[in-house]
Amino acid sequence: MAQYLIYFNQQWVGDHPEEWFEGRVKPSMAVYREMQEAGVVVFAGGLEEDAPIYHADDTSGPLAVTDGPYVETTEFLGGLTIIDVPDDETAKMWAGKVAVGCGWPQEVRRFGAIPEV
């Protein structure tokens, strides 16, 4: 088995009325329950948009953990799901189900293993 990351950038969600988002709850939760029943979900969640963001850096001296600076980017992570499945085809199938359930695009990538020490 291999672990895969299914994720989306917040900007991929698009602008929709509140009713549209409320209509996505049931189908997206149905996919999550299906993943749980299949025993493939390791973790799933969305990032809180208004929560604090911290930056940890030791490249310029002692470790500094601050509330900025942030990476200059036009896109940022909105949410993620980690699954444990046998192959790429299964991971792509689940990514498709998540995309349909949420109503916006998803990407899927396999995690590389951390070498044994």
Tally the helices.
2
Q: Output the helix-strand order.
A: EHEEEEHE
Which strand order do you get reading across the main beta sheet? 2-5-1-6
What's the N-to-C terminus distance? 21 Å
CATH superfamily of one domain: Dimeric alpha+beta barrel
> Would you tell me the overall average pLDDT?
91
Percent of residues in beta strands: 25-35%
Largest sheet: 4 strands, antiparallel
Give the SSE map.
Elements: E1 2-9, H1 18-38, E2 41-46, E3 55-57, E4 64-66, E5 77-85, H2 88-102, E6 107-110
Antiparallel strand pairs: 1-5, 1-6, 2-5, 3-4
Question: Would you give an account of this structure?
Answer:
- With 117 residues, this protein is an alpha+beta fold.
- It has a domain at 1-46 and 78-112: 2-Layer Sandwich (Alpha-Beta Plaits), CATH 3.30.70.
- Helix content is 31%, strand content 28%.
- The protein has two helices and six strands; from the N terminus they run βαββββαβ.
- The protein has a four-stranded antiparallel β-sheet with strand order 2-5-1-6, with helices on one face. Strands 3-4 form a two-stranded antiparallel ribbon.
- α1 (18-38) runs antiparallel to α2 (88-102).
- The radius of gyration is 17 Å and the shape is flat.
